[in-house]
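Please check this protein record:
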Amino acid sequence: MVNEESRSIQEYMDADREGMTRAACDFLDKWLSEMQDELRTWRSTYLPSDFPFDFSLNSLDILEGVALERYGDPADVETSGNAEFTNGAVRYIGETVVRNFPSRWGYQDLGDDSPGIYNKIPVVRANVPHEFLDGFAPVFELRLLAEERQAGMLKECPAPIVNAIEECEEATGGKSNG
């Protein structure tokens, strides 16, 4: 067994896959393989030419303004007219966190009848042992932004990741390794 403190991102993803359904694995594989093309299309279609497409936390502040122009309320996040924009925003927010913090994409498909709030929603998870695991769903962050409309909200998305890493490091003597 791999030492929890020295696991690579791939090892965390492989461990995730052990508990995933075939449908969830297929979705996540496709989601990840299409990431760059989807983001490139989203950028050219929906973002202003001066958007700092650099996956920095500061770029999330600018994305908030773009998103709030599209979303008058939380329901707008998931309307068919905003589906492509929301998909791209979810990808960009998640990739920003994955590129800046020890984390990875995750997904679960428990069937259409599952009441789980994270069922069939891409999430970002901290790269920590299971007992410290936490994460967030970028689409929920977009809904919250559309509801509360406060500056700086998207920049707070990594908070569960950071908290999980800090909790792990405190418990393991500074070794969370992501």
